Amino acid sequence: MRRRIGGEVQSAQSKVPEIKRVYDFLLEKEKTSAPSSSPYVEFSKGVNGLEKVILRESRGSSAEVYLYGAHVTSWKNDHGEELLFLSSKAVFKPPKAIRGGIPICFPQFGGLGTLDQHGFARNRFWTIDDDPPPFPTNTLSKAFVDLILKPSEEDSKNWPHSFEYRLRIALGPGGDLMLTSRIRNTNSEGKPFSFTFAYHTYFSVSDISEVRVEGLETLDYLDNLQNRDRFTEQGDALTFESEVDKIYLSTPTKIAIIDHEKKRTFVVRKDGLPDAVVWNPWDKKAKAMADFGDDEYKYMLCVEAAAIEKPITLKPGEEWKGRLELSAVPSSYCSGQLDPQRVLQGS
Ligand code: TA6
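Above: inputs. Below: predicted complex with 6-O-phosphono-beta-D-tagatofuranose.
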């Protein structure tokens, strides 16, 4: 092979030493730049060799997140019990989204048009953000990872906006799981953009017919099973006997999912996310999803902290922050604290 370099024609053979030198340099850089593991953060390979990060808290709780989709696929308590649902048929093969865990729905939730219904963030490879701006957070957690997503040229064809999406996934000292999203409009020509968003969390439950959700009583919701028409929820806790797909509006910061059989209550705390989606496909839809077991609907419930009814608009330079904090507590948890009216008044 011969190629012209700066007016001088060189043969490939004479280039070998330089190619080797460059190769050795890059190999060294790869070694030094590869993130280093610690007792709290382990960089590993998961299903199909996809890169993942394992977070471990000193008391035994853990979480796993794939760089593909910045997708949390596991969250375990300090007894090693799995708290998130992940389908046994989940496909870990891009560009298919992983079924279960916490898919990130951005820049849209349930939309139509050129984007997939839940956007593209969950179908992209994120990278480790090794130089994040200062992160205002009250957690002293050492078990955290910062990931970043920027649009590819392909993305910009379908969604012509410049953004930086930074996501911190952290395990708190008590095993709480915290996801903090910071999305900044980095457009230089003065163009604002709007988006909708959801943390599409799949909770693992022992039996959907034994689950109650508190905190959404009496609220308005859009029913995805009835053309997204608006209704008002009844006055007591939600229970489940059939398919449900509802977007609750202006919801309180705290929602409780009570698993009677396990005597376990999941508490969802959210900030910057006024809406909450509740979804269970039930039997018919379960059978229609190839990456979901026919009877797996019995063992999961999605309660998704979201911003849907009122899209978020960012001017250039503006940043939006959306926080989700999940905890799992014994069900002696007094449900009275989740009275939406009391919580809405900020008690
Ligand atoms: O969150 C509820 C929902 O919008 C349902 O309508 C259903 O489509 C679900 O999300 C799963 O969507 P996905 O694109 O992950 O298959």
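The helical segments are 16-33, 153-158, 282-288, 340-344.
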